Amino acid sequence: MATDGEIDYRSFAREQLDEALERIDRERFPLNYQALSAEIERRKWEAEVAARAGVTVEASAPVRHRPEFKADPKEYFRIWIVNLALTIVTLGIYSAWAKVRKLRYFYGCTVVAGSAFGYHGDPRAILRGRLIAAALAGTYLLARQTSTLATFIVLGLLALVTPWLVVKSRMFALRVTSWRGLRFDFSPDYRGAYRQLLGWLILGIATAGLLMPRFSRERYQFIVSRSRYGATAFDCNPGVGRFFKTAFAGMGLALVVGFFLGILLAVVVGGLNAAQASPAVTRVVTMAGVAVMYAVILSVVHGYVQARNLNEVFGTTSLGPHRVVSDLRATPLISIYLTNLLAMVFTLGLYTPWAQIRLVRYRLEGLELEAHGSLDDFVAAAAAPVPAATGEEISSLLDVDFGF
Fold first, then answer.
1. Percent helix / strand / coil, the chain, rounded to 5
2. Could you tell me which residue, 52 or 296, shows the higher pLDDT?
3. Whether pTM exceeds 0.85
4. Could you tell me which of 12, 43, 152, 308 has the fewest CB atoms within 10 Å of its CB?
C-alpha cells in the first residue's frame, strides 16, 4: 500500500477522482488529499479554459515558456563589490542590505512569459534574524569551549528545531517573492516537517546512509507541495526509486573519479620522491593534490546528483493545469562547477559574480513552464503576514540546503 504523498492521480479517470475524493481520509492522508484536490482543480481549470476558447480540452495546445535570465555580469560585479566593501566597513551590519540588493537584482532579471519576479524582503528584518543567528553561533562556540557534553546538547537542540526553521525559512522566502503582482506563499505544516524531514533524516543516519536518498526525496516533496502561487498550490510527486538510483550512481562515480585521481597523485608524488625533492615540497604537493581531488570529486558528484534529482522533482511538479519541464544535464553542470571553482581560486574570489550568474543562467535555461491555458487566471490568496527572518537567517548560517 502506498504511503501518504506517493499516489499519482494524474492517471486517474474523472470518475475515479470523484470516487477517491469521497473515500479519502484527509486527516490520515493530508498529502494525498492535497494532490487529489489539486488534480481535480486542474481538470476543472482545463475544462473551463477549453469552454471559453470554444474548443475541446484535447485541442488546446500547450505553450512553453522558457525563463530568461537577463543579468549582466559587469553590472552585477559593481553591485557585488560595493556590497562586499560596505559589509566589511560596517563589520557585517550592511550584509542584510547587501542580500536584499543582490536578490532584487537577480529576481528582477528573471523573466518568465514576459514578466519578471520581484523580491520584497525587508533588510531590517533580515538584520534582526542575522543577529539572532550570530547569537546562536556564539552559543555553539561557547559550548565547544565548555565541554563535549555541552556541544552535543547544543547540536541536539539545533537538530530538533531544524524542521521548524525550514518551515519558517520557506514562509519568509516565498512571502516576499512575487510574479505578475501575486505573492508566493508556503503553507506551514510543522507536524509534517518533523515527520518528513527529521524522521527520515534519523532513519537515514540510523541505516548508515542507506535511506538518505529517501530523506532527499521527502525534503523536496515537502517543500514544493506546500508552496503556493496566489491561491493555487503546487503539486509535486517525485519517484522514490529515481533518488536511490541517482545516489548509487553518484557513489560509483565518486569511486571511479577518486581512483583515477588517486593514481595521478601517486604518480606525481612518486616522481618527486624519485627526484629527491625535499619532504616539505612533497608534503605541500600532497596536501594540494588531496584538496584538488576533494574539490573535483565533490563538483562531479554534486553536479550529477543535482541535475538528476532536480529533473525528477521539477518534472513531476505542476501548478494548477500547468506543469514544469526540466532538462538539466549533468555534464554542463559539472563543467560549470569545476570552471567556476578554478576561476574563483585564481582570481582570489573576484570571479564570484560571473560564477553566480553562469550557474543561475544554466539552471534556468534547463526549465520550461508548460502552460495549459492562460497564465492570467491565477487569483490572489488572502494576504499572509511575513514572518520574522530569523528562520531564514539561521537556516543560512547552518547551511540548510534546499537543493534548488
1. 65, 10, 25
2. 296
3. no
4. 152
Nearest to 151 by CA among 142, 161, 138: 142
- The better pLDDT of the pair 253, 393 is held by 253
Give tens-digit pLDDT for 37-49. Answer: 767 777 776 666 5
- Return all residues near 112 (Cβ < 8 A) that are at least 6 apart: 65, 67, 68, 179, 369
Identify the bridge partners of residue 110 per DSSP, sorted by sequence position: 69
Asked whether the beta carbons of 248 and 294 are under 8 A apart, the reply is no
User: What pLDDT shows up at residue 80?
Assistant: 96
State the number of CA atoms in the 13 A half-sphere of 46 facing the CB. Answer: 21
Q: Look at residue 186 and tell me if it is in a domain.
A: yes
DSSP output for 171-233? HHHHHTEEETTEEEEE---HHHHIIIIIIHHHHHHHTTTTTHHHHHHHHHHHHHHTEEETTEE
For residue 288, count other CB atoms closer than 10 A to its CB: 12
Q: How many domains does the chain have?
A: 1
171 in a structural domain: yes
Q: Look-up: residue for cell 577518486?
A: 258
Give the containing element (helix H, strand E) for 332: helix 330-346
Instruction: Establish if 139 belongs to a structural domain.
Output: yes
Its domain, for residue 216, covers: 120-230+381-404
Q: Which three cell numbers stand for residue 369?
A: 513552464
Q: Residue 3 pLDDT > 60, yes or no?
A: no
By DSSP bridging, strand 317-319 and strand 232-236 are: antiparallel
For residues 315, 317, 320, 324, the Cα torsion angle rounded to the nearest 10 degrees is -40
As a whole number of angstroms, the distance between CA 301 and CA 52 comes to 48
Mean pLDDT to the nearest integer, 317-342: 93
Question: How large is the greatest C-alpha to C-alpha distance in the chain, in angstroms?
Answer: 84
Give the angle 273-275-276 at the CA atoms, nearest 5°.
60
69 within 8 A of 110, measured Cβ to Cβ: yes
DSSP state at residue 373: S
